[in-house]
Amino acid sequence: MKNLNRLTTVAFTALVPVLPLLASGFPLYSALLCLTAFFLFFKEVGRVTGPIHLGGALLAATLLGLSLDFPLSGFPFFTLALLVTVVAMIGRLLFMQQLAYTRFPWFEPVLVIASTFLAVAGNIMHPSGWMGWVLPAPPMLMNTGMAAAGVFDVVKIGKLSRLGYAKVGEPAPGFSLPDQDGNTVDLSDYKGKRHVLLIFVRGDWCPGCHIMLRAYQKNYKKFQEKNIVALAIGPDPVGVNREMVMKLGLDYKVLADENQHAAQKYCVQIQENFPNTKFAEGIPLPASFLVDSSGTLRYTSRADRAGECLNPALIFPVIDALT
């Protein structure tokens, strides 16, 4: 399969002996293989964000829980704790259009509390020694970190939304950025010729952005029929964008806004310092803008309105009104 690359193959291979090891009475080895597979799958979730990797992570977590609950003589506390952990980690990705980045901000924190409660209860009711405390901890701590990042997003996106984005009806801010092949693209190149759909993303590390880019790819022909050129804009350098275009199968360009000047002009940047990272000046938000051939903004998505930037269909009525 297209996304069944080396790491994914290693992860699935690691899960093959899990059940035989359990049946032979070696739950520790089984659990260690599951934990390894889980992190390999999640490494690929951040890189590709495909159903194979999400499903693989869920399978690995389930088998890890079964290894810790082995033998299954009582309530499966660890299995449920790890299932809840993975649901918290991938739930927003699976239902991104409905949840986006800001709806139901309690979703992940509540599941973090529930999974922690189940794991502690499992260690009290069915003690597994150090295995019960140590082995579930890495994915659960990872889940806690992701939940904290989600709460941060909600707060910052809400604040940015109150300040306002680039306004519909006003001239679109200009920019000149390199595409994934290193060729310079200037917004003014399309003035008087074509409409432009700008798709701001956070970068290749962002699974939600992969989903967003694929959603616009599915509607690529519709955009072409309406004389619209789609341009994605993110903070990654040219080389990373080139790889992302290839692995996601995109037919449109991805521009490198490494200094985030374009994101700042369109008011879709959280101006928060992240020292010693490429986001030292801030981090961009997922958003979409439609610029007509006269250079005027005709549509602006809102990150604080669930699913807008992930639903190209919302742009179609505006597209249909273009001449």
3D architecture notes:
- The protein is an alpha/beta fold and 323 residues long.
- The chain has 2 domains: 6-162, no CATH class; 164-321, Glutaredoxin (3-Layer(aba) Sandwich).
- It is built from 14 helices and 9 strands.
- The protein has helices at residues 6-15, 18-23, 27-47, 51-69, 77-94, 96-99, 107-125, 130-134, 137-163, 207-218, 220-225, 238-248, 261-265, 316-321; strands spanning 176-178, 184-186, 195-200, 228-234, 253-256, 269-270, 283-284, 287-291, 297-300.
- The chain has a 5-stranded mixed β-sheet with strand order 5-4-3-8-9. A two-stranded antiparallel sheet has the order 1-2.
- β4 (228-234), α12 and β5 form a beta-alpha-beta unit.
- It is elongated, with a radius of gyration of 22 Å.
Number of domains: 2
Distance between the termini: 42 Å
Named CATH architecture of the largest domain: 3-Layer(aba) Sandwich
Given as residue ranges, the uncertain stretches (5+ residues, pLDDT < 50) are none
Share of helix among residues? 40-55%
Short description:
By secondary structure, this protein is an alpha/beta fold.
Secondary-structure topology with pairs:
Blueprint: H1 6-15, H2 18-23, H3 27-47, H4 51-69, H5 77-94, H6 96-99, H7 107-125, H8 130-134, H9 137-163, E1 176-178, E2 184-186, E3 195-200, H10 207-218, H11 220-225, E4 228-234, H12 238-248, E5 253-256, H13 261-265, E6 269-270, E7 283-284, E8 287-291, E9 297-300, H14 316-321
Parallel strand pairs: 3-4, 4-5
Antiparallel strand pairs: 1-2, 3-8, 6-7, 8-9
Helix pairs in contact: 1-3, 1-4, 3-4, 4-5, 5-7, 5-9, 7-9
Main features:
323 residues; alpha/beta; Glutaredoxin; 2 domains; 5-stranded mixed sheet; two-stranded antiparallel sheet; 14 helices; 52% helix; 11% strand; elongated
